[in-house]
Write the structure tokens for this entry.
Amino acid sequence: MDNKTQIDKGIQKIHLIAVCGTGMGALACMLQELGFTVTGSDHKVYPPMSTFLESKGIKIFDGFSSENIAYNKPDLVIVGNAIRKDNPEVLKTKEMGINFCSMPQALNAFIAVDKKPILITGTHGKTTTSSLFAWMLYKANLDPTFFIGGILKNFNSNYRLGKGKYIVIEGDEYDTAFFDKGPKFLHYNPDITIITSIEFDHADIYSNIDSIKAAFKSLVSKLPKDKIILGFDSDSNISEILKNNESKIFFYGKDNESDWRIDNIKINNTWTLFEVFRNKESLGTFKSKMMGEHNILNALSVIAGCYNLNISVDIIKSALETFEGVKRRQEIRGVVNEITVMDDFAHHPTAVRETIKAVKPFYNQGRLIAVFEPRTNSSMRNIFQDVYPLSFDGADIICIRKPPLLEKIPINERISSENMVINMQNIGKKAFHFDDTDSIIEFLSTQAKPNDVILIMSNGGFDNIHQRLIERLS
């Protein structure tokens, strides 16, 4: 899988198992655009991803079956990381002696080959930071390729095949495949690596924070001395893994001694203004439509990265001002009767806290109503039982839905959303618990007032609550 000549000669038909995931779907489209014949399969295939892939000319099979392999006889099978080794298509692939690989392996072999990767990693902020970096490269006429876990509004896509030398990759610390339990980001050899944060997450594959730090340590330890690493200055875990590393390390944040620093943050209507310092020298005032200090810090890492690529400050400023953001990141889904319905991907306690903190100053004429659905493998576990109540401190009203997939978690490890609400009520918060989404919609339709913002946080579809709520409010 590492030999480009061998790939070009031998492979024409490629099949992706679990093709409807965000990353796998993007990879399928990129391969199709490169001229390969691409098919895919997934469990419970449904729009919009199914119709999107079919519109690209990619045949999709609903459900996993050995016949999908036997009928197509692909030259290569790409296996998604959620697929188990006893999957019928995996078994048939092995039986027929067909080569198979993981998504990162395929991305390296077909897309990133001969390019200079820019890798964005960290527990939080990867998608926004990756998207902004890709947009800045594009505005600098560097024609980038990118592969990102969210839909960039500027491109209405989460992938792009460019002819330039750079590829921006959102680097996931989650495991690669059933035959490769290491993190995905270890497959890439980046010229620039950004580390936004390191916290405990992915409790289904990591036992503790030390195991996560070990994964990031493996990443930075393999980087050559001439490669650039940009690390957030206020994260002790980042400082620890970068200690004694011989790469070109630059710290960014708010510390006066950091290589890159922001200061004088101000909110002006729909803009966030801030001053950027490089080695204590001011590069001027920058402005962004993104909300929250965490997003401005993400922007700072991109500014530093682009500056190291000799992109002018003027182009960087212009690109930042024209960056439209990412879908499902502080995305306004609708405004009805002066009530704003906002969608956000936040699910980790830190992300919930920072998102509420970011949104609140921009909607200070009314109340902030936080609606949260715990559905990740970590958020449904009791590891954050005592942490979540404090994460909602900035909200005026809090609505917590019972986790919809709780049966996937061992009984003794499950979070109690009821106790979470009780704990918030005990510290004086207006918090409410709901068994289903219908009850939340009914509650909000009677409680929401003009100038309120309803901030809905989930990493899933949340039963299409956004559109249903908008219709109910109408």
About this structure: The mean pLDDT is 91.
